[in-house]
Amino acid sequence: MELTRKVRSTFAIKNEDAWTASSRKKLNKYMISQFFIQLVNFQQLIKSMNDFVGDGKIVKTSTLFDGLSLCLNRTISEMLHDRYDVESQIEMIKTNMKIIGVNVNEVRIRSLYPRLLKLSIIIEKPTPVLLSGELKSQLERIFGESLKINIDKVRNKTLKIDVTSSRNFKVEHGVAYVGKNGSKLSGDSYLCENFQSGRTIVAISDGMGNGKLAHTESSLALRVLKCMLNFDVPVAEAVRVIAELKQESNTEERFFSLDLCMIDKENGRAHIYKQAATSTFLLRRETVRKIEMPGLPLGAVEGAKIGHMKVDLMPGDTIIMCSDGILDIFSNTDLFEKRIIRNTDVDVNKMAQDLLNYTISHSKGNITDDMMVVTAEYKPIRNVR
């Protein structure tokens, strides 16, 4: 009953002045549209989990419900977040602006959805604080994300401050691959996805063996992962559910690896996760950092945790991820790292193809395993002040 009351109050429109009621109506329409988008995502999640488990396979109902409830809880918690209460947000903004000596006359809210923030603040008799970074810092503390601030003069001493979610950085990716013996079908699969939260996910999954079966297993695992991350489920929790589904339905004892990099573009931070994956390389200017983590394949051992490391990024950094078919060719990675450096300032697609071609050349044309290289460059969309 309490949850029902909260959901109803979230969508309710109170009898208030015309602007506030209209504002709340628009905001709630936006929220409802987001909710229906998530319902579609639920359908995709259920289908992908069903395909991943496979026909005739038996898994615990609790495991399936665990994955679904993780996504549902994230959706409901977002919808019930205080930031969707227009009045409380307006009061919070006014109160926090007073702390830094700014008196707010009016707040116009168009969207409070995380990473899609859009509002305007009208201020009478502006103070020098507006010209410093204090206003921006205070608003970023309120909303917990990087913001873009634009100040326009309306009339006399009245200013309008437009506040939107920041979109200063992007990730460009490239990929090159080949199947065993030159086949077009590879057991390695990859994922590159930009999420509404402002994060970009780049991942490689290497299925056991080669060919169609290995490709199906690895690609379906990435599809389930993508669906769960659409709900902003933590990576470790999503991987745990996938591992449990695999372990319960794995009658043939087939496993796969997972190599994932989650890039928070506005905060300039990469979270690297590995489960039985090969080394990741970070190219910064003309130096290469090698990142390694031990681990067993997904579904091999119950309760095995995925390795995790945080890396701060600088504009221009490039992340290089490979399947084991690439690095197994080299007795050590020194030559491969030198080849990476030779690709400094090269387009990410050309870099991926060059590293693949170099590996094949180094093996004298013997493609004894599936090979895949995925590159991702972190770069500004425009000049950032």
Molecular structure report:
The structure is a single chain. The chain has helices at 2-11, 18-53, 61-79, 86-99, 134-143, 211-229, 235-249, 324-327, 334-342, 348-362; strands at 104-111, 118-124, 147-155, 158-165, 169-178, 188-194, 199-207, 256-264, 269-275, 280-284, 287-291, 307-312, 318-322, 371-380. The protein has 385 residues and is of the alpha+beta class. Strands 5-14-13-10-11 form a five-stranded antiparallel beta sheet. A five-stranded antiparallel beta sheet has the order 6-7-8-9-12, with helices on one face. Strand 10 (280-284) and strand 11 (287-291) form a beta hairpin. Helix 2 runs antiparallel to helix 3. The longest helix has 36 residues, at 18-53. It is globular and about 75 Å long. Residues 6-19 have low confidence and may be disordered.
Query: Can you name the CATH architecture of the largest domain?
Result: 4-Layer Sandwich
Give the % helix: 25-40%
N-C termini distance: 49 Å
CATH structural class of the largest domain: Alpha Beta
Put simply, the count of helices is 10
Total number of beta strands: 14
Derived from helix and strand composition plus strand pairing, the structural class reads alpha+beta
Unreliable stretches (pLDDT < 50, length at least 5) are: 6-19
Write down the Rg. Answer: 24 Å
Largest sheet composition: 5 strands, antiparallel
Q: Give the strand order of the largest sheet, numbering strands 1, 2, ... along the chain.
A: 5-14-13-10-11
Q: What is the approximate shape? A: globular
Query: In CATH terms, what is the fold-level topology of the largest domain?
Result: Phosphatase 2c, domain 1
